[in-house]
Amino acid sequence: xxxxNDKNTATLIHLSAFSQYLIPFGNFIFPIILWSALKxxxxxxxxxxxxxxxxxxxxxxxxxxxxxxxIPIFIISLLKGAALSTFHHNGEYLLQQLLTGSWSNAIIIxxxxxxxxxxxxxxxxxxxxxxxxxxxxxxDFKYPITxxxxxxxxxxxxxxxxxxx
Length: 165
Hints:
The chain is mainly α and 165 residues long. It has helices at 4-15, 26-38, 43-84, 92-100, 105-136; strands spanning 150-154, 160-164.
């Protein structure tokens, strides 16, 4: 049975990911600190802590992939475009490309990656809130699109052990 203290602790672990807006990498630091300090108190806290950490690691990995797609595309496209045309002051070349619709497919892919990045972080915000609401009521919550970096395995005696990929 999940106690009120376990529910509150699991909720706090999920909500601690919002510390990323105040402290760089706070979305990793605080959930890991809370989870590692309290994981032995309850299987529920252990499971929900791993869910929060796995989700944050997955979001980071997806963001990294999107950045690795978008940034080189924009740099190469801007350098290529600047070399092929007369570059006027105040970025008039970029404005001209925008107004004439002469964007290359690479730029469109780059913008798509940026839009996916923004969408990913909006979804992250709402999933954290939803996870906190679900865990505060004692429900098990599993984030979608999450890579299970930390797995939970039950021993024969019913205790949980942690393993990594």
